[in-house]
Amino acid sequence: MLFDIVQLGPAPTRTDRHCLAGICTVDGVPSRRLVVVVDRKAISLLAARYSDPESGAWRIEGLPQYDEKQLLVLALDDTETYNAEVADYVSQVAGEGV
């Protein structure tokens, strides 16, 4: 066959273009918290990372593209002092260098 290197079918899902990021604070002070990202439609865990204890910053990369407002982000308090903070109907942005 002349074109034996061509593969037909759906394109592979890209995971190098989208990210989520933010800062966790408790009473205005940057804090370490577990940040969890959930797909709202499937109710499935997509990613989880701890925020930086010094700056409160967190960043999750390597996510495939999701529809607008399809994600739910939770910041969980493992000290059992505060309720979780919730950001609902979250949309991704293009990551740096994309």
Task: Please tell me about this protein's structure.
- It is elongated and about 55 Å long.
- A hairpin with an 8-residue loop joins strand 7 and strand 8 (85-90).
- With 98 residues, the protein is mostly beta strands.
- The strands form three sheets. It has a four-stranded antiparallel β-sheet with strand order 5-4-7-8, with no helix packed on it. It has a three-stranded antiparallel β-sheet with strand order 6-1-9, with no helix packed on it.
- The chain has strands at 18-23, 25-26, 29-30, 34-39, 44-50, 57-63, 71-76, 85-90, 93-94.
- It contains no helices and nine strands.
Helix content: under 10%
Low-confidence stretches: none
Calculate the mean pLDDT score and round it: 84
Structural class: mainly beta
Strand content: 35-45%
Number of strands: 9
Order of helices and strands: EEEEEEEEE
First-to-last CA distance:
37 Å
C-alpha geometry: elongated
- Strands of the widest sheet, in order across it, are 5-4-7-8
From the alpha-carbon coordinates, what is the Rg to the nearest angstrom?
Answer: 17 Å
Total count of helical runs of at least 4 residues = 0
Biggest sheet features: 4 strands, antiparallel
Throw out a few tags for this protein.
98 residues; mainly beta; four-stranded antiparallel sheet; three-stranded antiparallel sheet; 9 strands; 45% strand
